[in-house]
Design a protein that fits this description.
- The complex is a heterodimer.
- Chain A contains eight helices and eight strands; from the N terminus they run E-E-H-H-E-H-E-H-E-H-E-E-E-H-H-H.
- By secondary structure, chain A is α/β, with parallel strands linked by helices.
- The longest helix of chain A has 14 residues.
- Chain A starts with 5 loop residues before the first strand and ends with a helix.
- By secondary structure, chain B is of the alpha/beta class.
- In chain B, the strands form five sheets. In chain B, strands 5-4-3-6-7 form a five-stranded parallel β-sheet, with helices on both faces.
- In chain B, helix 2 packs across helix 5, helix 6 packs parallel to helix 8 and helix 13 packs parallel to helix 16.
- Chain B is globular, with a radius of gyration of 21 Å.
- Classes of the chains: A alpha/beta, B alpha/beta.
- At the A-B interface, helix 4, helix 7 and helix 8 of A face helix 2, helix 3, helix 5, helix 10 and helix 11 of B.
């Protein structure tokens, strides 16, 4: 997994609330057995018409946002299914951070496994960043994970909360299976004790 | 003095392997359910790192999302991508030695129906699966939730998950349900109150008389959609109905182990003075048969209501409703019961169990679906299908004009050939009405099996109570 330390870039505005994982990556693209290559189908049904042509109005089809690395989105982003294909598609497109007032639980966790930073901020701060996002290249947003800050184009700094363990893994690009396997003796002894207490499991 | 605990607290505490100073826990996983869509990359990850499956005996694999539900599937899967995924699961299950129900095994079905049916799901367990509807298993008083593929790989390799504890929410449904009102109406009505983000950060425990009066099938329907309310998991404390359901199932404990298990299971209730971070109470008598009108499960109203207007909402929801009405081809003020449908889908992990098929068949008995309508029943498992045939339900569906299919997820998410065409409107017993969920441009109205059966007869969204002889 790639580290996430700082990021400065163009943000794409997606103010719609409840953007679900079926919108982010429709089910017909879940038939892959790989993690890569999903960026071309990100937001497929919003981005392309029935004939596969780009829908010009869709934000990521507009020249200003084709290289966007950040999304500023409406409430409850990523609701719906557990498909990790959603963050895989975002990452493959080039999105490294999503800013919203709230995220669905499973999507939020999945982001951290893929080097994507989901940032939760209050509505009024998301509104300011949404305005920045609407200005495209003229209003770049900066993110610093170490100091847990997002800086708007005109220099307003917003502090965000993040779980310390998730922050540590993201800053260092750590594989958490490797970290857990360092605790294998604790798992062994838990298992031995649980086998005594609940042998039917 | 001991600290009062919720059911969630008790199950959590019984599974903590290790706790860091910041509160991050390593949680032991008792059952890991695996299907073909979210697992191939996880097994591949194990291979690439030379890791193995730590507890294959606690891992259960079954293909469900991609499998065709037509009888010709015994000859193989036509769609090459679907076939590759199902073949990959077959290879991975055999190579890593996990429990496995292949496509043509009578026990095959939707993973969340197979787990309880085979007795893999038991009270007090931790259960995960790379699928958001894992919440279903909470009906047994098991802590059950969906995970992503990276976490699937983590559980395969370590039989644990790195977790932060959620908050506790109590959803109480007091009193009894009125005739024609079902578990599906409860769970949709709760989401109507909380919204799809209202449960974010919480584990919900459903309780109250109306919940106690539900069968295990009904309780699974309620917990199944906890995720649509944003909750990590939904739980219902186990009781005699739970124990009765579990007893004698292939993987349930037997003999002395049954007695020991039962003694522990009976302790699995929230203490009377436990702390709740949020409480929601609904009166069972106030819940009506409901349908969804929009493209989010929170867009739910009693069937007697009319389509709302964007201006009835506030904030970002105004634009979302405008978009939803456009997508759904509906006008504000239109009566829900005037909405004509093209298709009926009965099935899914929400409503694909035997009781659901009985409820639909009770409405359809001796009747025909409206001419020109497409209607299908997809049983949740091969065993549900066999039982429905034995009970004569299959014949009722067939006589009414329904297609009688083999088990799978089918048109709930349309990864197999069962899909809606653009603009096609469907009365569905599944769990999501998102844009494109059942096929690009498809329009989904969620409802109970009885309501879907009623819609099949009249060809429009219909109050099931109009078709029953029971006094209202």
């Amino acid at each position: 997994m790639d580290k996430f330390t700082t990021l400065s870039g163009v943000a794409a505005p997606m103010p719609l609330v409840n953007i679900d994982t079926d919108m982010i990556i429709p089910k017909q693209f879940l038939k892959t057995i790989q993690r890569s290559g999903l960026g071309k189908n990100l937001f497929d049904e919003m981005r392309f018409d029935d004939n596969g042509n780009e829908i010009p109005d869709f934000v990521l089809n507009q020249p200003a946002y084709r290289q966007a690395q950040i999304l500023v989105a409406g409430d409850n982003f990523g609701c719906g299914s557990s498909r990790e294909h959603a963050p895989w598609a975002l990452l493959d497109f080039g999105i490294r951070s999503v800013i919203s007032t709230s995220f669905a639980d499973i999507f939020y966790n999945n982001c951290f496994k893929n080097g994507i930073l989901p940032i939760v901020l209050p509505q009024e701060q998301v509104d300011i960043l949404m305005d920045d996002a609407r200005k495209g290249e003229n209003a770049r947003i900066s993110i610093d994970l170490e100091s847990q800050t997002v800086t708007s184009a005109d220099g307003q700094e917003f502090h965000f909360q993040i779980d310390p363990f998730k922050k540590h893994c993201l800053l260092n690009g750590l594989d958490d299976i490797g970290l857990t396997l360092e605790k294998v003796s604790a798992i062994d002894s838990f298992e031995a004790q649980a086998n005594q207490a609940r042998p039917w499991v | 003095m001991t600290v009062a605990k919720t059911l969630y607290d008790k199950i959590w505490d019984a599974h903590v392997v290790h706790q860091d100073k910041d509160g991050t826990c390593l949680l032991y996983i008792d059952r890991h359910l695996v299907h073909e869509v979210t697992s191939p990359q996880a097994f591949e990850g194990l291979r690439m790192t030379g890791r193995t499956v730590r507890a294959p005996e606690k891992t259960i694999a079954v293909p469900d999302h991609n499998v065709p539900t037509t009888p010709d599937r015994v000859n193989g899967i036509e769609n090459p991508e679907s076939r590759i995924q199902v073949d990959a699961l077959d290879k991975n299950a055999r190579e890593f030695g996990v429990n496995y129900y292949p496509v043509n095994d009578i026990r095959q079905g939707i993973v969340h129906i197979v787990g309880p049916e085979q007795g893999w799901t038991l009270p007090g367990m931790t259960v995960v699966c790379g699928d958001s509807h894992t919440a279903t298993h909470g009906a047994f008083g098991a802590l059950a939730h969906g995970i992503g593929t990276s976490e699937v790989e983590h559980v395969l390799a370590t039989q644990t998950l790195i977790q932060q504890k959620s908050k506790n929410m109590k959803v109480e449904i007091t009193g009894s349900l009125r005739p024609g009102v079902t578990a599906k109406d409860i769970t949709l009505s709760v989401i109507g109150v909380t919204g799809t983000a209202g449960g974010t950060g919480y584990v919900i425990e459903y309780c109250g008389q109306a919940i106690r009066e539900l069968s295990m099938e009904g309780r699974m329907t309620v917990c199944n959609m906890a995720i649509e309310g944003g909750a990590r998991a939904g739980l219902i404390a186990p009781d005699e109905k739970t124990f009765e359901y579990v007893k004698g199932r292939p993987h349930a404990p037997k003999g002395a182990q049954w007695d020991a298990a039962l003694a522990w299971w009976k302790t699995l209730q929230s203490d009377a003075d436990a702390h709740w971070d949020k409480v929601i109470t609904l009166r069972g008598e106030d819940i009506a048969p409901v349908v969804t009108w929009g493209t989010s499960p929170e867009d739910v109203l009693p069937i007697t209501a009319s389509v709302p207007a964007p201006e009835d909402f506030s904030g970002g929801k105004v634009d979302a409703v405008r978009r939803a009405l456009d997508y759904m081809g509906l006008k504000a003020g239109q009566k829900l019961s005037d909405i004509e449908i093209d298709t009926v889908f009965i099935g899914s992990c929400t409503n694909g169990r035997i009781e659901d098929l009985r409820a639909a068949a009770a409405i359809l008995k001796g009747k025909k679906i409206k001419p020109g309508l497409r209607a299908m029943v997809v049983p949740g498992s091969g065993l549900v299908r066999a039982q429905a045939e034995e009970e004569g339900l299959a014949q009722i569906f067939i006589d009414a004009g329904f297609e009688w299919r083999l088990a799978g997820c089918s048109m709930c998410l349309a990864m197999n050939p069962d899909q809606l065409a653009p603009g096609e409107r469907c009365a569905a017993t599944s769990n999501r009405n998102f844009e494109g969920r059942q096929g690009r441009g498809g329009r989904t109205h969620l409802m109970s099996p009885g309501m879907a059966a009623a819609a099949a007869i009249t060809g429009r969204l219909t109050d099931v109570r109009e078709l029953t002889t029971e006094p209202a």
